[in-house]
Every structure is written in C-alpha cells, then in structure tokens.
Design goal:
The complex is a heterodimer.
Chain A (H helix, E strand, L loop, with lengths): L2 E4 L9 H9 L4 E6 L6 H14 L4 E5 L6 H7 L3 E2 L3 E5 L2 E5 L2 H7 L3 E4 L15 H10 L3 E7 L7 H8 L9 H5 L1 E7 L2 H9 L10 H7 L2 H30 L1 H4 L5 E6 L3 H17 L2 E9 L6 H16 L3 E7 L2 H11 L4 E5 L5 H7 L2 H8 L4 E5 L22 H20 L5 H16 L4 H19 L12 H48 L4 H16 L1 E8 L5 E7 L7 H13 L3 E2 L11 E7 L2 E10 L2 H5 L1 H67 L7 H31 L8 E3 L1 H11 L9 E4 L7 E3 L1 H18 L6 E8 L2 E8 L28 H11 L3 E6 L5 E8 L7
Parallel strand pairs in A: 2-8, 2-9, 3-4, 3-7, 7-8, 10-11, 10-13, 11-12, 13-14, 21-23
Antiparallel strand pairs in A: 1-9, 5-6, 15-16, 15-19, 17-18, 18-19, 20-22, 23-24, 24-26, 25-26
Chain B lengths: L4 E6 L3 H13 L2 E6 L2 H11 L3 E5 L7 H9 L6 E5 L4 H9 L4 E4 L4 H17 L7 E4 L2 E4 L4 E4 L2 E3 L3 H12 L4 E3 H9 L8 H15 L9 E4 L3 E4 L3
Helix pairs in contact in B: 2-3, 6-7, 6-8
The chains are: A alpha/beta, B alpha/beta.
C-alpha cells in the first residue's frame, strides 16, 4: 500500500493577502501528488474521501478514473458519483467531468481526478485545473490528483530527465493554494505493479512507456516530488522565522525582473526566474520589451505575449515596455521598480551581428551598476516563435511579389525607352530609384526580389551583349554585385523606416485611444453616461458591436448600454456574462474559456472586483485577436471599471450625505413630534381629569359630559401620536427590539386592563390555554399590537357586540386572534387594511394602528393578516415564532 | 386635615406644572416647583418635601442624574413622570431607587393613587408593618404566612407565597422583575430568570384570580414588572 507523507498546511506560509483570499471565501483544495502514474493517487484520494463521508461530510465524486482496477472501483461503492458530460469530438464520444452538474449539486467536498487533464473542445474551460479553480471560487472543497511531471515549473526538468515531453501542465500557483498529500511508492514496487499490469498509462506508445518507466527516471521523479513536498516544509519554517524576527533575517527584499521575448527559450527563462524568485522569497516582474528599432513580426509578438501571460500565471507582475533603446529602457524600468536582480537570456543574435553592434547582454552588464544581472542559457533556436493560433496573418500578401516584379518590368521598360539617350550608369540609378519605391511598401522579401530582378533585367536587356545573360567585360561583375548590394541595402533601410513609422503610428493610436477614453470618462458623471461613452469608444476603436452589462437591483446582470444592432442577450450568453462577472475573468473569443462563442466577454474590474461586463463582438475576428489589441482591450476594460467604481463611490458619498441629512431631519422631527404633541396632550388630559375630580365645585351634568368627551378624545389622540412615533421608529430602525421570553396571557391581560373604560360596555371572551409556552417578544410593542387590534374592533363594530381574544400554539409558532361581530372587512380590502393611511368607509382614524401592528410583527419575524369570520364579523390574526425549543 | 404634605414637582413644561399644581392643591398638598435639575436639588435640600414628582426629560440634567443626586442623602419617595416607550429609563430609575412611575398622559385619579401609596410606604418605613393586606377579596396575613381568597384559605408553594408577600408588603407599587428576583429567591437568585418570575406569577394568578387573563389583583406592567392592586 502507498505510504503517505503529509505536508503542513500551505496556508501557513502563503502571503497574508493570499491567505485571506483563499481561506475566507473559497473552498479548500487538497492535491494527492505522485511521482508517476500508478503510485495509487486515486486510491488514496478515494480512501480519504470515504473517511470524510463517514465523518458526515457531504461528499460527491465528480470524476474518478478507476482504469478498471477492482480495488479502486470497490472504494467507489457507497459514494455518490455525478454523471459525466458526454461530448463528441471528431466522431468519438468523450466522457468528461461536468462542471455544471457539480455546481448544480453543490456538495461540500467534490472529487475530481487528474488535475492536469485537458478538457474536450467546446468545454467551458480548456483545462481541468480551471474547472477546479472555479469550483473552489464558488466555495466547494475539492480533492484531486496530480503527477509531478505536470507541474508547470518542473515541466522542462522532467522532460530533460525522462525525454518525454508532457504537454498538459498545471500552474504552480494551484499547488501552492492546496493542501498537498504525497502518495509515495518506491520505484521497485511501482515497476512490479507495472509488470503485473496494475498501472494504466494513457496516451503513450509502448516504447515511450518502456523509456519512461525506468528505474533511473522513477527515482529522479520521486526525488522531485519529495523535494516539492519538502520545500513546503522549509517554507513553513522560514515564514515562521520571518514572523519571529523580520528585520534580522530578512534585511532587504529582493525583487527580480525577467526580460521576456518570443519563443520557448523565453518560457524556460520565465520558469527559471520563477524558481529563483521562489527560492529567494522575492517578488518578480516580467517585462516584454517592444523595441522600436527592431520591430517583431506579429507571430513573434504573439509568442512573446504568450510568454508574458505564462509569467503572469506563475505569479509575476507583467509589463510591456515600448522603447527605442532596449538597454536603457530596461535599466530605467529596473531602477524605477527597485529591482535587485535582472534575468536575461543569452543573446539570440547571430555572432556576426553581435560583433557589429555589441551584444545587449554586454551593454546591460556594463551599465547595470548595483543591479545584478543573471544571464541564463536559452535552448534551441531562440527567435523561432511557436506558431500561435491567434495570429496566423501571413507576413506578406502574395500580390506584393507581383507588385515587385511589375515594378522591375516597368523600370526596365522605362530604361528601354530612355536607353538611347543615357549612359548605362544612369539606367542603374533608375533601377535603384525603383528599389526605394518597392521597399517603401514595407515588405522586405518583395524588395529583395525586386533587387535581384533588377540586376537580372539590367544584365539581360542593357549590358552588352544585349538580350543574353552573358557579360562581355569582367568589370560588369563588380557593377552587378555593387548594384545588388546597394539595392538590397536601400530596400532594407526603407523597410525598417517604414516599420518604425508603423510601430510609432500603432503606439500613438493606442495612446491616443486610451487618452481620449480616459479624458471623456473623466468628464462623465453617472453610470449610464459612463457606459454609453465606454460602449461608443470601444465600438470605434475595436470595430465591434458592444453590449455593456451591470448588476441590476435584483442581483442579475442587465444590459445597460449597447452599440450596434444587438441589444439583448439570450440565456446562454447571459450565463457566460454572469460567469465572467462572478469570477472576474475574461471569457469567450480569444480566451481559454469558451473560445468558440462569437464574442469576447471582459469583466469591467474596479479596485474592489468586477462591477460589470463588456461584451465585444468584433466585425472581423482577426482584427481583435491580435495580441496588441487584446491587451489594449484589457486596459480599456480596466479603465472603464475604475471610472464606474469612482462614480459609484462619489454617488454613495453623496447618498450617505443625503441620508445623514434625512436621518437628522427625521430624528429631530420625531423628537419634536414626540415632545411637542405629547406634552400638551398630557396637560389637556390631566387638566380635564382634574375638573372631574374637583370635589369643591361639582360639574353640571352637561359640563361633565363635555369634559369626559375631552378626556376620551384626548386619549385617542395620545394613542394616535404613540402609534405615529412607533411606526416611524420601527421603519427607520431607530428602535431595537427588547425581546425576551414573554407570556401572551400577561400581555393580553395588560392591554385589556388599559382599555377597560373603552371596552366596558362589551362582552369580552378570552380563551388562552394556561400551558402556552413563553414567546420571545418585545412585550411593550406586542401590548401595543393588542391595544390597536382591540381599539380597532371597538371602533368599527356597533356598541354591545362581543369581542373574542384567543391564543393557541401551533408547531413552531403562536397564533393570536382578535375577532369581532361587526360589519367585517370587504374581501378586496383584507390586505389593504394593513397599509398606512387606509381608511375604512365612514370611519375616522389616521389608518396607522394596523400598519404599526404589521411593522411590529415583521420586526418579530411574525405575520399579521385579516380574515372574514364565519357568521359575520372580522377576525385579525397574528403569529409569532416560538423560537428554539428550550429557549423559553 | 392634619399637617399638609409637601410635594416637589420637578418638571419644565409649564402646562403640566399648572395642571399638577391645581390638582395637588385641590387635594390638600403644599406644592413646591423646580423647572430644572439644579434648582430641584437645591429646593429639596432646603425644603425637605414629603414626596417628589420627577420628570425624566429635563433641560439641564438628565432626570436619572437628579435621582442619583437625591438618593445620596434622602430616601424621600420619588415618582417618575415619563413618556411611553421609555421602559429602559423607567427600569433604570426603579433600580436607582425611584418608588414608582406614571406614564404620560395620566389622570388625576391615577396620580393621587400613586401619591397615597408612596406616602403610606414612606410612613411605614421604620415602624412595625401592618401585617395584613386585604383588597377585593384577597387577604394575605404576612405574620401568619396565610392567604385567603373569597374567605377560603389558599395553599401556596413557598416561592408563590414569597412572591405574593413581597408584592403585598409593597401593595400599590410597581415592583421590577429584578427586584422580585432579589427578594423572592434571595441567596439563590443566580438561578432565577425573568421566566421563573413569569412562571410563578402565572401559577399564582391561576390560584387567586377569577380570570387569569384579566387579573384583578396582580397587574402586569409590560417591560417593567408587576403591581399588586390596593385601595
């Protein structure tokens, strides 16, 4: 059985910020890491999952490859296995992990085998590790398996050891956020298992298997895995030391800068720098230097930007630098960013160029001053960029060669016409003039073709003996060579000037576009206006149809602005937009996520996360898919996101100022109402009662009646004011409920007692079982509910009719009813009576009593409603939650 | 009439003061007035009133501060005047040693009843207590530990009796939950909660009230405590 070694919790040594990020919201990731296929990772993972399941966790299997092994399959028994996604690729049915099924099921812990797997075309993500990251982002814990050779930064080392190039890689950052469990098996045992046919080896030819599963390879891979695990342990120790005495051990922070170019050698450079940075615990930056003097082809640029992306994935901060002088530009940047170590590849230039112009590395070393320069060997042909799917634009359109040939013919014709009047040397001049014209179209090869054709035509048509390629005098050989050299040189020079002009023009266009966007955004207020400006700009600059989405009031994304014919999104497009918004990543055209849809969805990201989504549907795909354009679009999206956020902050600052003002006004109004109305009322009622009591001067019958009237109405007014104040306090949240377990019997009794005078001429029946449980409530407010209901019943029913108060417990709530035998409430008004300022026909009242009842019960998590009573009359019922059993 | 009792009204609202003054004088009290906290403390020290009516909302000092100041040197009965919804303040005032409270608006009858109860308790203090409470058919003999309702003797558990006895010896005054717990449960008051009080009151009511939902003897003061009715 596999032996297991545990690596400490990685959270302990991740940078603080990252820690909060991963621990706070996301799920936890556990990786079962093995040195090679067959060590028993899936087995170990399933075992661990079974233990979790027995502990009562909600475990589901998203995907587990048993490869038909019985003991592994047996472990799956009793675990819930989610259905796989069935896709079809080139007629072959593919069964893949179904992330949507997993998200719909939402288990606490999900098992997803084979982290490095590449998904079938048409899946949401191109790689399974991206699926896993999404699961984690959405708060699901994941167990997964990984072989060490799939780790991004170890990829080339593994290739060197085993000779097998592994194309499926997983970024190290995924491993870093994971809890890693090493599944270790000594190579001898693994080889035994292989012989017994217990190891499933996918996608490898027999010979490759033979060469991969060699003792030496397996030992080396095992060592790599052990080291990767051990590095985790060392990092824990170091970070602990750092916490203990930060100054003593880490006097300065290192910062690395790596210069990235096109081609796989640069990718290697990036990986090497990443390892260095990890070893030094240093931050690192990667820069792509876009030299104005030597402009790269689109394919090369695309490859360089791919490398820059790789650096970004590996945790570098990435930059693009456009400069005339590569050396000065890079050193300036390094100084600006306090870089301590500069990493460059060994010069890729041919030897003779180096001698002529001096190597960039030499210049860097000379001028670097206190910055260390590390030169790392590149491998293979340096500037041979990998063909990128993004930029397959042909370098030179074929008609440019036709143009070059035509120009050679035209000049020849012209020479032919003027040859009787001019010397041969003058004819050469005309050919050279043609070279400048052809080269000015900006293509190097047609210009070279022209130069050769010019020499040949000159020889054939003009050099005696004419109309043959043979030459009468040896002098002409020198003429031809010089003519060819000068033509080539002139055309080379011209092409370069053209390229520089083009590069400057593009750069200027980019700057101008950014500038004009930010300038207009700066002068725009309001979300709608900002989105309109943004949509218009992006549409113009990227020649696309734009739809801008923002989160609406109910949380869903809504189309807020659009340029172009399309103004609505269908269900599928909406879900892509939502995905982009939730995860803050681009998706769609030109990205790795859902690349097959016809538009690019970019998040509008402010400093505090996504605020919206921009959907860009280009009129011509190729125009948008140029890496430069993609980068520019990203900057645009960021700029717009920031503008939206700034606007929101300003708006919320303004709003909170208004709120504070309103609140101040409201509370001063409240206290003045409460004071200015209550005081005179208290005096009126008190004085009137004083008149009644005055034994010295008894009142006449008439006067007594009038005084009683004053008292009664005064008391009514006082209750109204109390209701008004309570309503306002409840609505503004100014009142905190003083909830404690209370007896509904007591509260009902107290309310009945207070209204004794009003209810004197009525028959009141009460039915409150003596064994009712206590209910958590604010007794004063519930008493007010009772009083309002009783008063309501007394006011709206003829004198003498009975009123019944009943209470009963029901499962988890208490139900109280106040019922009368009056005219009842019209069915259409049963809801409306609880609205503020509702008036029953022909009755007086501010319509506040029942509204406040509803407010009080809402605040208690209860409910109030009215019903028509069988046999006539109205019944008002309210329910109060009983709270947890045992609490009362 | 024997010697007239002196009432100090601490209240800043003239309309209220006017009606209080008239009603009190009509009922045979001598009336002193103070419209702010400082004057109130001075007047009460100089004139030593028999009972004080204290409004909680004063312009200078908080009513509770005035009460604290008074309680440093005198045990004169203090009745709080307050608005509805100020239950927290009422409890605080009772805890600080106020005798009772009146919620505005109130009538003269209510005011006089409270004053009578407060004065009676003040007189009783230091003198041997009247050992028998009797009101509307309920009789509690505090010396003999016996209780009758409608002439029939009623048997109560020790806790029920203690609670009724505390209410009876303070008849007419509001007694806060906290006070009841302290007096009834005494040493073991740590174990008692407001729910325990509710439960005992509930049991008591079912023994001494005709309709426990509409009690005639033990009245509930929501959010505050209980009051045993008296003549």
């Amino acid at each position: 059985m596999p032996r297991e070694r545990k690596r400490p919790e990685p959270e302990a040594f991740l940078p603080e910020a990252r820690q909060d990020e991963t621990r706070g919201v996301g799920g936890r990731l556990k990786i079962f890491l093995g040195a090679a296929p067959g060590v028993g990772k899936t087995y170990a993972m399933l075992q661990a999952a079974r233990i979790k399941k027995n502990d009562g966790e909600d475990v589901a299997v998203g995907l587990a490859e048993t490869h038909g092994r019985r003991e592994t399959r047996e472990l799956l028994d009793g675990l819930e296995v989610l259905p796989r996604r069935v896709g079809e690729h080139r007629g072959i049915k593919l069964y893949d992990f179904d992330i949507d099924a997993a998200l719909a099921r939402r288990p606490g812990l999900l098992l997803v085998d084979e982290l490095a797997h590449t998904n079938a075309p048409g899946s949401r993500h191109s790689k399974r590790w991206q699926d896993v990251l999404e699961l984690l982002d959405r708060g699901i814990d994941v167990y997964t398996t990984l072989n060490i050779q799939h780790l991004e930064t170890l990829n080339d080392i593994v290739a060197r050891i085993t000779g097998v190039i592994v194309r499926e890689t997983v970024p190290d950052s995924v491993l870093e956020r994971a809890d890693v469990e090493l599944v270790d098996l000594p190579p001898e045992e693994l080889l035994d298992r292989l012989k017994e046919g217990k190891v499933y080896v996918p996608d490898m030819a027999e010979r490759a298997v033979q060469s991969f599963f060699k003792m030496s390879n397996l030992s080396a891979l095992r060592e790599l895995s052990l080291r990767a695990t051990a590095e985790g342990v060392a990092a824990v120790v170091e970070s602990y030391r750092r916490r203990q005495a930060p100054e003593a051990i880490w006097p300065t922070r290192e910062r690395l800068l790596v210069a990235v170019g096109p081609g796989p050698s640069s990718a290697k450079l990036v990986r090497a720098t990443r390892r260095m940075a990890a070893g030094l615990h240093a931050e690192w930056l990667a820069v792509f230097v876009d030299s104005q003097a030597q402009r790269l082809s689109e394919t090369a640029r695309s490859s360089a930007i791919d490398n820059l992306r790789l650096a970004g994935q590996l945790g570098a901060q990435t930059l693009t630098l456009t400069t005339r002088d590569v050396v000065e530009g890079m050193l300036d940047l390094a100084r600006q960013r306090n870089v301590t170590k500069l990493v460059v590849g060994k010069s890729a230039r041919q030897r003779w160029k180096e001698i002529l112009r001096g190597s960039i590395v030499d210049q860097l070393v000379q001028k670097s001053g206190d910055i260390d320069v590390y030169v790392i060997r590149g491998e293979g042909p340096a500037a041979e960029p990998a063909p990128s799917a993004l930029a397959k634009k042909p370098e030179t359109p074929p008609w440019e060669y036709v143009v070059a040939a035509g120009a050679a013919a035209a000049v020849t014709l012209l020479d032919f016409l003027v040859s009787p009047y001019l010397a041969l040397t003058d004819l050469i001049m005309l050919y050279l003039a043609g070279a400048v014209l052809v080269a000015s179209r900006g293509h190097r090869r047609p210009a070279a073709l022209y130069s050769i054709l010019a020499v040949l035509c000159f020889d054939f048509f003009f050099v005696p003996p004419r109309f043959t390629f043979s030459v009468s005098s040896g002098d002409y050989l020198v003429t031809f060579v010089v003519m060819a050299a000068v033509a080539l040189f002139i055309s080379g020079l011209t092409v370069r000037i053209q390229a520089q002009a083009e590069s400057a023009r593009l750069g200027e266009m980019r700057t101008a576009a950014m500038h004009s966007l930010s300038r207009e955004l700066a002068g725009t207020r309001g979300v709608q206006a900002i989105l309109d400006v943004a949509a218009r700009h992006v549409a113009e600059v990227f020649d696309s149809d734009i739809i801008a989405l923002m989160q609406g009031e109910r949380g869903a994304l809504e189309v807020r602005s659009a340029s172009g014919a399309k103004r609505e999104l269908d269900e599928k497009e909406r879900s892509v937009a939502q995905w982009v918004f939730d995860l803050g990543q681009s998706a769609g055209l030109g990205t790795q996520t859902l690349p097959v849809v016809n538009a690019l969805y970019a998040p509008l990201t402010g400093a505090e996360g996504p605020v919206g989504v921009l959907r860009v549907q280009p009129h011509s795909r190729e125009r948008l898919l140029i890496p430069d354009q993609m980068l520019l679009l990203e900057s645009f999206a960021h700029q717009i996101g920031l503008a939206l956020e700034v606007d929101r902050l300003q708006e919320s600052a303004r709003q909170s100022q208004i709120d504070a003002e309103t609140e101040r006004l409201r509370s001063s109004l409240l206290s003045s109402v409460s004071h200015d109305l209550r005081t005179p009322l208290a005096a009126i009622i008190g004085s009137a009662t004083s008149l009644l009591q005055d034994a010295g001067a008894p009142l006449t019958h008439k006067a007594r009646e009038l005084v009683e009237n004053v008292i009664e109405e005064g008391q009514w007014l006082a209750r109204l004011v109390a209701n008004l104040i309570e309503t306002t306090r409840l609505e503004t949240g100014a009142v905190a409920l003083r909830k404690e377990p209370g007896s509904i019997e007591e509260i009902a009794g107290s309310a009945l007692g207070r209204l004794e005078a009003m209810l004197a001429r009525r028959e009141i029946t009460t039915s409150v079982p003596p064994d009712l449980p206590l209910v958590p409530m604010d007794g004063v407010l519930i008493e007010q509910v009772f009083m309002n209901l009783l008063e309501n019943a007394a006011r709206h029913t003829p004198e003498g009719t009975p009123i019944a108060v009943t209470a009963r417990a029901e499962k988890d709530r208490l139900i109280v009813e106040v019922a009368d035998r009056g005219p009842g409430v019209p069915p259409e008004d049963l809801e409306k009576v609880f609205e503020k300022f509702y008036h029953a026909k022909g009755s007086k009242g501010a319509g506040l009593g029942l509204a406040i009842c509803r407010a009080v019960l809402n605040a208690h998590g209860g409910r109030i409603w009215a019903e028509s009573r069988e046999g006539g009359g109205a019944s008002f019922k309210f329910s109060l939650p009983l709270g947890e059993p045992g609490a009362g | 009439m024997p010697d007239k009792k002196t009432v100090l009204i601490i209240e800043d609202e003239i309309a209220i003061v006017r009606f209080l003054r008239t009603s009190l004088q009509d009922n045979g009290f001598l009336v002193l007035e103070a419209s702010n906290g400082k004057t109130a403390l001075d007047v009460s020290a100089a004139k030593k009133p028999d009972v004080i009516l204290l409004d909680l909302g004063l312009p200078d000092l908080d009513g509770l501060e005035v009460l604290k100041g008074l309680r440093r040197w005198t045990s004169v009965p203090v009745i709080i005047l307050s608005a509805r919804g100020q239950e927290g303040d009422k409890i605080a005032a009772l805890d600080l040693g106020a005798d009772d409270y009146l919620t505005k608006p109130f009538g003269v009858a209510e005011l006089m009843a409270r004053l009578r109860v407060a004065l009676r308790h003040a007189e009783k203090a230091g003198r041997p207590e009247n050992p028998v409470y009797e009101h509307a058919g309920l009789k509690v003999d505090l010396a003999a530990h016996r209780v009758w309702h409608k002439k029939k003797e009623i048997h109560l558990s020790p806790l029920q009796y203690e609670l009724l006895a505390v209410l009876a010896s303070n008849a007419g005054r509001v007694i806060s939950q906290k006070h009841l717990i302290k007096e009834v449960w005494r040493e073991s008051f740590g174990e008692a909660t407001p729910e325990s009080v509710r439960f005992v009151v509930h049991q008591l009511r079912h023994k001494i009230e005709a309709d426990p939902v509409r009690p005639k003897h033990i009245k509930t003061e929501p959010g505050i405590g209980y009051r045993l009715e008296s003549d």
